[in-house]
Amino acid sequence: MTVSTKKDHKLAEIFLTGTAAMQDLPLYSNLKKSAKEVLEESGMPTLKNEEYKYTAISKRISDQLTHFGTPSSIDNLQKKIQGQQELFRLEEGYTLVCNNGIVDAHLSKIDPQLFQLQALTELSEEKAAQIGGIEKNEFDPFTALNSLCFRDGIRIDIPDGKIIEKPLLLVNFVRPDENGACIHPRVFIQVGKNAQLTLIEQTIYLGEDPVLVNSVSEWKVGQNAHVRSYKLQDGHKKNLEVSNTRSEVQQDASFTSIVLSLEGGMIRNNLSLDLNASNCEGNMYGLYLLNGKTHVDNHTNVDHKKPHSESNELYKGILADQSRGVFNGKIFVRQDAQKTNAFQQNNNILLSEDATVNTKPQLEIWADDVKCSHGCTTGQLDEEALFYLRARGIGKDAAKALLLHAFAGEVLDQLKEEGFKEYCEKVVHARLGGHY
Amino acid sequence: MSKDNEILEEFTSKEYEHGWSVDYEADEAPIGLTEDTIRWISSKKEEPKWLLDWRLKAFRHWETMDEPTWPNVKYPKIDYQALRYYSAPKQKSKPSNIDEVDPELLKIYDRLGISLNEQKRLQGIAVDAVLDSVSVGTTFKDTLSKLGVVFCSFSEAVKEHPDLVKKYLGSVVPSTDNYFAALNSAVFSDGSFCYIPKGVRCPMELSTYFRINAANTGQFERTLIIAEDKSYVSYLEGCTAPQRDENQLHAAVVEIYAAENAEVKYSTVQNWFPGDKNGKGGIYNFVTKRGICAGNHSKISWTQVETGSAVTWKYPSCILKGDHSIGEFYSVAVTNNYQQADTGTKMIHIGKNTRSRIVSKGISAGKSQNSYRGQVQVMKRATDARNFSQCDSLLMGDRCGAHTFPYIDIHNSSAKVEHEATTSKIGEDQIFYCNQRGISSEDAVALIVNGYAKEVLNQLPMEFAVEAQKLLALTLEGSVG
Predict the structure, then answer these.
(1) Residue A393, CB-side half-sphere exposure with 13 Å CA sphere
(2) Do residues B189 and B133 make contact, with C-beta atoms less than 8 angstroms apart?
(3) Which residues on adjacent β-strands are paired with residue B169?
(4) pLDDT band at B35 (very low <50, low <70, confident <90, very high)
(5) Contact check, Cβ <8 Å, A50/B396
């Protein structure tokens, strides 16, 4: 499809001139150079851009932020972490703590036997060359922006055959200082043959100052490797978040992504799975529970390139107040990808007159021997179900909450990591019981 | 082997049965498009000044626009200056009724199986026949005029009912709406005009038959249907074109206006020349069709069977403005060989309790690409709006594509919107089942496809349904190996 190229060059210009003074990373000079070219050419996306038709993120960035640089690291992070009561802590497992996007080795708890963990600035040239090879700069202006601006990042390598049973928690503590409010976390994870990994990602915002977190995650999932990636987005009303995640999946491997979006100003998630070989499995689940003026936009993309692959997708949303939910799911089935099964579902419940849903479940199919379906619904709570519960003596609010829990439960059930599941259920239930 | 070849030969020659053309003396505009062309067309049709101004305004706007690139279709760039924008069969004098029409022209329609001779007709269907740029004749005028129904060519309407035309022209599809609508507004040559007065239930189906005959000519017709309070009309449209090597452009505009309690049913079987087996030639069909349910309790229903044209770009839409109004869209789009179709609908819910239903069945075979692109929009004040969409695709062969682009925008919490889509191929087990019972693979496919499309075909008036079924079978002939 041809995309209209009405651009916002002003904002791109700010980033381009702002970073000119920044110290150059010699390892990534080519990547940054190409990012610069992409941004100069495309600018930041506006509503005229088909992919950003409903999400005026560039405008929000220009309106809300006063500084566009990256902040310095947070002082006394350890103390601040201890002060956070509600924080999710792993009882068993490995934790990686990032301080404004830069990994903090002292606070992290990692078993070097299982992971090879390196900062991007310390990589060998060969390994550094892979950064930006999966999520390429030209795929999205925000990816290019990340490439242009990141100062450091993390590369994790899981050796062949290593099955990591306990989850890896990646917490990014974000706090803008007076010098800037844009953070560009960059992660590259390579999972070797027959290896397994569960990753939990969370961003914790310290303070409520406006901030943009623009992250890029690249995954290389080897043969017969299995990855589960969970992401919890629970910020505050002034935070802007853009995430670009792309995973290359090899033969017999699987990749499962679950994204929970609860609180935030404007959130845009781009999730792409490239099923590059046969017999792959890609699963994408999402739940967004929105109130206030929160705007969440999930763009997903599954590309079936070879035969016998399967993809499942389920995104559910409950929208209250003036919130807005955007969903765009694309399924591509290439000519070679015969015997593909691809399923996609998006369900929304609107709880208020002013909430808005824009959904576009899109199928593009070039192979004939496939089973593909997509469906989407938007509506209210079922009056009859509500009546049934009330007839049995359950109060109106309790009955509503019960039905909403059941609706959200379908996505939460996909969380296989018990500790994290309990935590999410608690957060979701507090949300559903409290606000609706 | 030789017998196989024979059968194959038969299929290829049978490909498009309306591929012939007839030579007749024609009145033609010079090739190219400038303001002078528009003045030429306007003076040729002896139009009033307001209409010329309206055309020129559209033309000036068109000049500032860019051809849309968002549809999922590919075709070489059209040179709008190499086209002829007006071609009309020369008639000795203006015929006052159908008997005075040049018999040569009537023969064309006889050959298409459309008899314009009223006595010969079994059923009462009033036909307006449009050849290239002008209407050659309209049947059953007297019967209709007794009821106050106006059914005539657009140019006649401009002369005889200028107030109506002035009031409604461009009210649903503004002249500046999109690239092709603007082009049509500037150069439209003729079309059908239909007015159903208050409380009249039109006793017969009204039908327009479009035929492109001349080479290198674009056809730009404009249809305007107005249904007043409590009226009903069923309108049919059919179209064919000769088999030519070069591509021809067809950019029509259809506007429907339904007042309170009115119902308009619009059915079309589109059978433009789709191009040959190698994708050469064929019609570019870039059409804007839109209806507005302006009054409460009104209803507009679109039914389309798309088998022809090389490239189709068409989205019949409903604006559901009146409370309790209903919009429906039923479509079967078949593409074979190198055909490309990007078609669908738009349902804009504005009034309260409005409902819409979309059933779209795509069938792609050969190397064709078939896209459904639809939008369901529920505006803020459209409480209790209801929409159900179903778009299924059937793939035959591994070189074709089926794509779905549904846009669903909901701004009201009481709306109930459902969208469903599936893509699949005809199961080998289904064909095997038929084979076992002595049904050949070819017939089995026709059977399965007809069953698949039944939901839409059932919406067509009887004679049309028969034609559509035949067309479906014909279009898919030879697509099963």
Answers:
(1) 0
(2) yes
(3) none
(4) confident
(5) no
Q: What is the ipTM of this complex?
A: 0.75
Task: State how far the Cα of A123 lies from the Cα of A104, in Å rounded to an integer.
Answer: 17
pTM: 0.82
For chain A, how far is it from start to end, CA to CA, in angstroms? Answer: 40
A136 to chain B, closest Cα gap in Å: 24
pLDDT at A379 over 90: no
What are the boundaries of each domain within chain A? Answer: 68-382, 383-436
Kindly list the domain boundaries of chain B, sorted by start residue.
Answer: 2-11+18-314
d(CA B479, CA B397): 8
> Is there a contact between A357 and B408 if contact means CB atoms under 8 Å apart?
yes
- Chain B residues closer than 8 Å to A365 by CB: 393, 395, 401-403, 423
Give the number of residues written for chain A: 436
CA distance A140 to A270: 9
Q: What is the pLDDT of residue B21?
A: 66
C-beta neighbour count of A254 within 10 angstroms = 20
Can you tell me whether residue B447 is helix, strand or coil? Answer: helix
For the stretch A173-202, pLDDT in tens is 888 877 668 899 999 999 999 999 999 999
Over residues A302-329, the mean pLDDT reads 93
pLDDT in tens, A3-21: 444 556 778 877 877 665 5
Mean pLDDT of A296-320: 94
* 8 A C-beta contact, residue B347 and residue B320: yes
3-state secondary structure of B110: helix
Q: Does B420 touch chain A (CB under 8 A)?
A: yes
Q: Quick one: chain B helix, strand, coil %, rounded to 5?
A: 25, 35, 40
> What pLDDT does A22 receive?
58
Provide, rounded to the nearest whole percent, the portion of chain B with pLDDT above 90: 23
Number of alpha carbons in the 13 Å side-chain half-sphere of residue B69? 10
Is B255:B224 a contact under the CB 8 Å cutoff? yes
What's the pLDDT score for residue B97?
57
- Is residue A374 within 8 angstroms of chain B, CB to CB? yes
Q: Are strands A168-174 and A94-99 parallel, antiparallel or unpaired?
A: parallel
Chain A interface includes B65 (CB < 8 A): no
Q: Which of residues 359-388 of B touch A (CB under 8 A)?
A: 380
